[in-house]
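Narrative summary of target 7.
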Amino acid sequence: MGLVPGPFVILDFGMNGKGRPVEPTVVYVESVLTAAIYLEKQVDVDRYRTVSAALHDAALDPVNSRMLLRKIAKEYEQ
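Modeled conformation, tokenized:
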């Protein structure tokens, strides 16, 4: 059974003048089961980037999000 990821943030720290990362990318993960954790291994960062991309692809654009929220709000007004 796979677990649905909880809240997370991918922390990128930008590039220096030589085009190298100032600091390595880190994923901050909030969890109900454990304390908040920071993941630094590239395999973990890549996994969360994949999850982030999938969520982005599944999300509605701003216009359609507003339309959906208005539709739902109207249903609850009745």
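The chain has two helices and three strands.
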